[in-house]
Fold these 2 entries.
Entry 1:
Amino acid sequence: MNTLAGHLFWIWLASAVFMLLMWLIQLRTKNAAIVDIAWTFLVGAGGLAACYFASGDIARRQLTAVLIALWALRLDAHLIARFWGEPEEGRYQAMRKAWGPATNLRMLAFYQYQALSVPLFVWSVALAAANPAPLFQVTDGLALVIWLVGVSGVSLADWQLTRFKATAAQRGLKGTTCRDGLWRYSRHPNYFFEWVHWWTFLLLAWGGPWFWLAAGTPLVLLYFLLFVTGIPPTEAQGIVSRGDDYRDYQRTTSPFVPWFPRSSA
């Protein structure tokens, strides 16, 4: 555990320095969305480092490394395609407006907060990599199923939303809300399936030293998605940009867990 804590400390320190550089870049570009790309990269790189330095079963470490690397590559590819050449995302514009003259300092604190969260996500990956049990226990099979469901669900939700936005732009439709595919059953299917994905590493850590602590990552993530940095600001921005259409969407559609829509009457 002491060795793990040491590795996580260095991952945090590297993340803090990297996020400082990203903050300096956004001072010039005036686009804070780079923090999302940087955070994903840092979690992926930190996860790979944790797998390299762990002392668990070698096959388990390799599988864990592949899974966290594929997760990071997919998400960063999506974020780069989404943000490249586009103006700053609405939620970051809202933050700048709310913070006023204190924007630069508060943005620095926000970037460093993101750096501080990196070890929390690497934590569960490191515990999975530290598990000495030979690979392909029953729980490992369940972990692969969970990973496939989570990553496939996020990918599908992202693709459906991107397709909807492109179609809406072509047709000149503004102020409309995506209700296609998974978005008909959840207002935030991308958040839901991202949360599902993080249970993968608890199952890969199952039976290893302190394995139960790997549940901390998805549990803390759930709290932040529901109450802090996930759904609340996204929904507030949805009301600003789509008004009554989004309010109707809120009345009829589950906020997180996919479920059948309700009548708007």
Entry 2:
Amino acid sequence: MSPTATAAPAAATLATATALDVSREAGKPAVLRAPSFAGIDPAIDWLTEQRAAVKDELHRSGALLIRGLGVDDAADFGRVRDVLMPRRAGYKEKATPRTDFGEGVFSSTDLPAVQPIRLHNENSYTLDFPGTLLFGCVVAPTEDGATTVGDMREALRLLPADLRDRFMAKGWLLTRNFSELAGLPWQKSFATEDPAVAEAYCRENAIGYEWLPDGALRTRQRRSAVVTHPVTGEKSWFNHFAFWNNRTLDPDVREVLLETYGDDGLPFDTYLGDGTRLTDDEVDAINEVYDRVTVRETWQRGDVMLVDNVLNAHGRESFKGDRKILVAMGDPITLAECRPETAPATTASGE
């Protein structure tokens, strides 16, 4: 199969999915409208009956917003999660702050409301990651604040051919400098106070590491930029390359960070898998593809949205007013199951 080819779901899958009341509009994710319920208990019963069809539709659309379940709080959200994603996935190598509500339910990223979050695939830099994400709205913002999504099958197709071929062959390289001042300290990212435990994790997960003279930790990891979905067989653009590339930063922010930390000391930075730094035009071309595939739907209280983490990337608009979006991660899968185009390694040389 060519890099841009897609494998259609089985006929039986398509037949099951068409039984759902799913609408599709340009610029929006697929929306499933649930029947009217007199409480969360009958909503959960209905969702349990429709689970297989919902997951089939998710594999077709990549993201599916479900409207009408009446999810009011974290407890309701947890019940929906247990139906749709009974196998929970962990959150490894943490990169952003979240509030933990317990039982595998978190806040979406706790970053300032004025700061949008670009599209990315959750934990694309780890060796195992959530196959599915579930978002739920318990407080809708007064303005903007949508959880944006984008089809990474389409993104792969739209990438300039030369860039796509280079990433297919070389993968991408992530460098991290852990600090109390920017990003997260290594103790929070690796959930330990013991340097030996952090080192062991790095060795077991194909991450190169070095301790700097001031006691800070620097890591490097090469990962595949393109993977194959383990169920649908479709190839997908799956990475944080543009998300963490310093050329994606606001120019003023980049200047301050470079002056403060130096070119090799940024909290996050990315390269082509062989260590090559892409040009501004090349990074812009990737970000333009993300912009082209981005779709959004305004949150309503009680909405939930399933996102296939391999088929779709997700992000967040800036917003005004209160906003409380919950997230849970499930259906864990390994990178090996996704047949990476590039083998994971601790350095650009592939060691």
